[in-house]
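Contributing new complexes? Match this layout with pyridoxal-5'-phosphate.
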Amino acid sequence: MSDYRIGTKCIQSGWSPKNGEPRALPIYQSTTFKYESSDEMGALFDLEKSGWFYSRLQNPTCDYVAAKIADMEGGVAGQLTSSGQAANFYAIFNICESGDHFITSADIYGGTYNLFNVTMRKLGIECTFLGNDATPEEIQAAFKPNTKCIFGETISNPTVKIYDFEKWAEIAHKNGVPLIIDNTFATPVNCRPFEWGADIVTHSTTKYLDGHALSVGGCIVDSGNFDWSKYPEKFPGLTTPDESYHGLIYTEKFGKGAYITKSVSQLMRDLGSMQAPQNAFLINAGIETLQLRMQRHVENARKCADFLKESGHLAWINFSELEDDPYHALQQKYMPGGTCGVMCFGLKGDRATAVKFMDSLKMISIETHVADSKSCVLHPASHTHRQLSDEQLKEAGIQPDLIRFSVGIEEAEDIIADLDQALKATFG
Ligand SMILES: *Cc1c(COP(=O)(O)O)cnc(C)c1O
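Output block (do not edit by hand):
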């Protein structure tokens, strides 16, 4: 891990060329790698030596970008995946198997909710959903003998609630399990969960890290802080011989690198959700401007939130930077420099009012995306959750009038002018 400040890491970490090598990160567009002798290649297959041999497992372009993100988070090792979904699946499946259980915040991205609630159950992995505001007693009561981790999001998508890291980390560690955090919305520029007790961090790099809505991708980073070997009966996949690698024991052979090495050499080998080197190259270019962009996203979002609040047309707004937001104290504690560009709000009126407002926007586009350079909105009741009635929406924790607004990095005056004309068109 380098000592540079975060904005410097965005640019300098990862690829560091030697004499005469390309200054920019090259795209290693190759499925495979050549060796001089059979023994050299054999040593790679035995995990005796590190190196590249087949891009389903590892590729230099992807590895340099993973190393950059790991350095930005303050972790010891990282791995890119094909999507944020794959990252969250691997992060949990690496330590949970059929018959196991984990505890998760219910205030999480809808795709992750389905992954946990439907697909992972089919694999025999159960989870308990708890609201972000669960008390320590409620969290403790959710523990079972087979509980293997706790999961949450730094800033929840779409409700933008702030996660109380210290509360959850303390209970996780008291029970001998790691805390896994999806840090997608905050990015390591605005929050580094390892500094607050998280053990593993995941990302959908599709969002701010890429920043331009160019490529879908994910990442997992290990802090190296969780001592798996202290709980051998709980994490046998890491602490007992892996027969698919001649009986090697990950914690003994790789120490702090055990978790990511297992995830690459077992899960990526068998499930193959690798990232394309082209996409890793795009993410890397995006990350170079991440700090600059996050500053602008935050600045623009603050101005838009103030404008919307003062318009008199809001029924409610979730944006933790506002002083009267219920999550303001947690925002001040964990992300005093700013959160991100995403907020959600409801207009006075009903589902139809939200639709009228969105259809009246000219520059701000209607998209199933968030967290990139272009301002956009989504109305879950009309889009991602359109099959649900108002009642069912509320059960899923989504207000029927909820508009998710992702503030881009255009000039704030133009974004506000668009909001203003759309509000006038809606309310007269
Ligand atoms: C988008 C998103 C995901 C899923 O990522 P994909 O790259 O779309 O697979 C996971 N977590 C959060 C918080 C997200 O916003």
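Reviewers usually confirm one structural detail per submission. For this one: The chain has two domains: 6-285, 292-427.
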